[in-house]
Amino acid sequence: MKMFLQLGLILLAFCMVATALLAYVNSFTKPRIEAIKLKEAADARNELIPDSEFEEITGDLSYYIARDKTTKEIKGYTFTAEQIGYGGPVKTMAAVDKDFKIISIKVIQQTETPGLGTNATLPKFTDQFKGKTLDQLTVDKDGGVPPNAIKALTGATITTRAVANAVKASIDKLRASVSQSPETAALSDSTAALEVAK
Amino acid sequence: MSFIKELTKGIIKENPIFVIVLGMCPTLATSTSVENALGMGMAATFVLVCSNIFISLIKNITPDKIRIPVYVVVIASFVTIVDLSMAAFIPDLHKSLGLFIPLIVVNCIILGRAEAFANKNNVLNSIADGIGMGLGFTLALSVVATIREILGNGTWLNIKVLPETYDPMLITLLAPGAFITLGFLMALMNMLKEKK
Amino acid sequence: MKDKYIVSSAPHLHDKTTTKNVMWNVVIALSPALVFAVYYWGFRALLLTLLGAVSAVVTEALIQKLRRVPVTVSDGSAFLTGMLLSYNINAGAPWWMPIMGSVFAIAVGKQVFGGLGNNPVNPALLGRAFLLASWPSLMTSGWLKPKSGALSGIADPDAIAMNLKALSPKAFDLVTGATPLKVVQTLRDSSFVASINADAGEGIDLANRIFTNITEMDALKNLFWGNIGGCIGEVSAFALLLGAAYLLYKNIIEWRIPLFYIGTVFVLSFIFGPIKGAGFSPMLPFFHIFAGGLMLGAFFMATDYTTSPLTKNGRIIFAIGCGLLTVVIRFVGGYPEGVSYSILFMNVMTPLIDKLTMPKAFGRVKK
């Protein structure tokens, strides 16, 4: 009995030292890591819509409004869309212009099958999203006809769907959210906004 | 003398993958491309050397009965500290290797070497063992990855090596392909050993 | 010589059956299907089959040389494996496809485990699974149209197709470009059904029209004779039944596995076959037993001696399991056809089934 107690206490001591060390390391690395993450996200946004300043809007869908640095005119929106793919959630970062046409997308996080689903991260796949509008985001296997559809990856239709449908759903939400907010609608080019509202 | 011996044994004679069959999960998961294999191999070698030093240092103050939980705590905390520090101070390296760091916690090679070697040997030999085993792991991983990447993707280290007309054999990139490749390589190792 | 003196316990059964005899008889039984395949697709089908069979024989001989064991290719088992593998690929497949499949089937499916009698799963099916995982797009598309018919087996494709082309290009592509099981699988996709019905306009239930056409008598006749798109050896149910009758007559295969396998598929497709939104057809169970590779699988692959249970009750369990899995894969899985995977899965279960159903030795008291 005494031995068990002794061993338990020794293990406890090890754990306490380990925990203390971890807490100490965490205390000074956490702010740095978070700052790096924020900077990376900002860099990614800048890459999608260059020369802009971003304003974050939180809500049903969190997104960023990109405004031109000098004219303050709305250039577009960026957001992160997520849907379950074949091997877990697939996160896609996308940028659309003020008419909700896709500027470009980037698959930022996925755990898909190597060699099949992971091809979704390649430019060969993501480039086909450029310039697509909301109704052109149907996967060809679901009845869309290219070039007005997304061509499914070989052997990875589910991954393709996860990317295309997530982006599609998010644009839908974005459109609703933008048209509801009078401030942003007024700021954007009025004819384009009307076009979209239809 | 014994330093050199401990250093070289892990590369062929006691290769952690082909001979001791340790660390199968990361082997199967990260051998899809040579780039991944090298990343995983280097990260694992680094952690292995450090954990061997630690374990070798604390071997005298650790009671025998609870050594395994102690090793697990030591290795897991150590890996986490490496992970956090890398993310905070060398983010570029963390981006390419960071993916593999959490995987190393469950890499049996680390615990296996702690139990089989570092807790019985001095610090210097433990360092040699860590480097040797790490190199053997990296080497074996790269061999598996070379076969899988060339057959499954037509590339080697992202360089196109097979003609455009080659239709990649996708199975080599999937789990069954990993098992089959590994199985054939082990058979080859055994065959060569028998010949000797 | 030493093989002649086998010491074993009673009963000592003697029979003229030899491995050689059995294997070549199965090859004979499989040949009508090849005749039909050549009729529908030309000599390409024969060429692919020969490539598969010959490369299987060569692989077996080479590996046996390498293993320093007697070369036994004349027993026909490797030839049969290669032939069955080729029967499982599309007549439009590239020439190297049967070769790759056969090499894998023999090397990894059979010789690695120690050769004939030691393989845990059917080597030909393993070869097919390998091809399907390696080249999914080549294995599931590019079907060749049979000589006088449509891929989907719909009796008068032109009449319906012309009409369809105007109504919905998507539906037209489906009916002219997919195998029967693929058509039915696609009709299970409610978003597809909604989209083609929307194309066709108000009042036309296009999905139902396709479903009715594919299960009507004329289409079933095409399925029975093999005038459809599919793998080389699986299309003609008639030719396969002819071969199966020969094997049953020769006592080479036993009736339990095929009967219970096909019976399970028949019953389950009667219950679960109807598709919501596309209608019901009384002929559906017949469609499901004649379509795809069920006949080939049930008579020629599930009955493989090494990989099916030894006991009679075990065989029934094995066959029902195959049927159940086939239906599950066809109706809810990602692939249109599930015969090969279901047999592979039940092959792995075989030792377990044998253990559970082994009869008690006479006189032994239950513990």
Features:
heterotrimer; A: 198 residues; alpha+beta; 2 domains; five-stranded antiparallel sheet; 5 helices; 5 strands; extended; disordered C terminus; C: 367 residues; mainly alpha; 18 helices; globular
Describe this protein's structure.
The complex is a heterotrimer of chains A (198), B (196) and C (367). Chain A has helices at 2-48, 123-126, 157-180, 182-187, 190-197; strands at residues 52-57, 63-68, 74-84, 89-97, 102-109. The relative contact order of chain A is 0.11. Chain A has a five-stranded antiparallel beta sheet. Chain A starts with a helix and ends with a helix. Chain A has 198 residues and is of the alpha+beta class. Chain B has one domain. In chain B, 70% of the residues lie in helices and 2% in strands. Chain B has helices at residues 2-9, 24-30, 34-58, 67-89, 91-97, 101-105, 108-118, 123-153, 175-195, and strands at 155-156, 159-160. Chain B has a two-stranded antiparallel ribbon with strand order 1-2. The longest helix of chain C has 24 residues, at 43-66. Chain C has three domains: 18-140, no CATH class; 157-222, no CATH class; 253-357, no CATH class. The model of chain C has no long low-confidence stretch (mean pLDDT 88). Chains in contact: A-B, A-C, B-C. The interface between B and C is small, with 10 and 9 residues.
SSE diagram, text form:
The complex is a heterotrimer of chains A (198), B (196) and C (367).
Chain A: H1 2-48, E1 52-57, E2 63-68, E3 74-84, E4 89-97, E5 102-109, H2 123-126, H3 157-180, H4 182-187, H5 190-197
Antiparallel strand pairs in A: 1-2, 2-3, 3-4, 4-5
Chain B: H1 2-9, H2 24-30, H3 34-58, H4 67-89, H5 91-97, H6 101-105, H7 108-118, H8 123-153, E1 155-156, E2 159-160, H9 175-195
Antiparallel strand pairs in B: 1-2
Chain C: H1 19-41, H2 43-66, H3 77-87, H4 96-107, H5 123-134, H6 136-140, H7 157-167, H8 169-177, H9 180-187, H10 190-200, H11 206-215, H12 217-225, H13 237-249, H14 256-272, H15 284-290, H16 294-301, H17 312-332, H18 339-357
Helix pairs in contact in C: 1-2, 1-3, 1-13, 2-3, 2-4, 3-4, 3-5, 4-5, 5-18, 7-8, 13-16, 14-15, 14-16, 14-17, 17-18
How many domains of chain B, as an integer?
A: 1
Q: Strands across the major sheet of chain A, in which order?
A: 1-2-3-4-5
How large a portion of the residues of chain A is in β-strands, by DSSP E? Answer: 15-25%
What integer value in Å does the Rg of chain B equal?
18 Å
What separation lies between the terminal Cα atoms of chain B? 24 Å
How many separate domains of chain A? 2
Strand content of chain B: under 5%
Characterize the largest beta sheet of chain A: strand count, sense, and whether it forms a barrel.
5 strands, antiparallel
Chain-averaged pLDDT of chain B = 87
Q: What is the overall shape of chain A?
A: extended
Instruction: Give the fraction of residues assigned to helices of chain A.
Output: 40-55%
What are the segments of chain A in which pLDDT stays under 50 over at least 5 consecutive residues?
A: 185-198
- Strand runs of chain A, count: 5
Number of helices of chain B: 9
Oligomer: heterotrimer
Give the helices and strands of chain B as they follow along the chain. Answer: HHHHHHHHEEH
Order the strands across the largest sheet of chain B as they lie in space: 1-2
DSSP summary, beta strand count of chain B: 2
Q: Which stretches of chain B are low in confidence, meaning pLDDT under 50 for 5 or more residues running? A: none
The largest inter-chain interface, given as chain pair and residues per side, is: A-B, 23 and 26 residues
| Terminal CA distance of chain A | 78 Å
